[in-house]
Amino acid sequence: MTTGTDTGAAPTRPTTAFRADIQGMRALAVTAVILAHATGWPAGGFVGVDVFFVISGFLITGLLLREHERSGRISLPAFFGRRIKRILPASLVVLAATVALAAWLFNAPRALATWWDAVSAALLVSNWRFEASGTDYFHATDAASPLQHFWSLSIEEQFYLVWPVLLVVLLAVAARGARPVLRSRIVVGGVLVVLIAASFAVAVWQSGAAPQAAYFATGARVWELGAGALLAVSAPLLGRLPLALRVVAGWAGLVGIVASALLITGSIGFPGPWAVAPVVAAMLLIAAGTGAGPAYPRWMFLLANPLGRGVGAISYSLYLWHLPILVFVPMLVPDTALSTVPGMLGLILGVSVLSFLLIEQPLHRTPLVGSFHGDRDARDAAWAAWRERFASQFLYSAVGLVIVAGLAVIAIGPALRMPVTTGGPAAVAAPAGDPLQGIAAELQLASQASAWPDNLSPSLDDAIRATSSTNPARACFDLGSTPDDGSCTWGDASAPKHVYLVGDSTALAYAPAFRAIADQSGGAVRITTIGLYGCRFTQDLIQNSGAGVMDDCPTRKHDIAERIAADQPDLVIVSNAFAAGRTTDGRSLDTTSMVASALAETAGYQVPGRVVFLAPPPLGADLGSCYSRVSSPQDCAVGVDAAWNDFAAATESAAGAAGERFVSSLPFSCADDVCPAFAGTTPTKYDSVHLTPAFAEHIAPAILQTLQAAGAL
Question: How many CA atoms lie within 13 A of 675 on its CB side?
Answer without folding.
Answer: 25
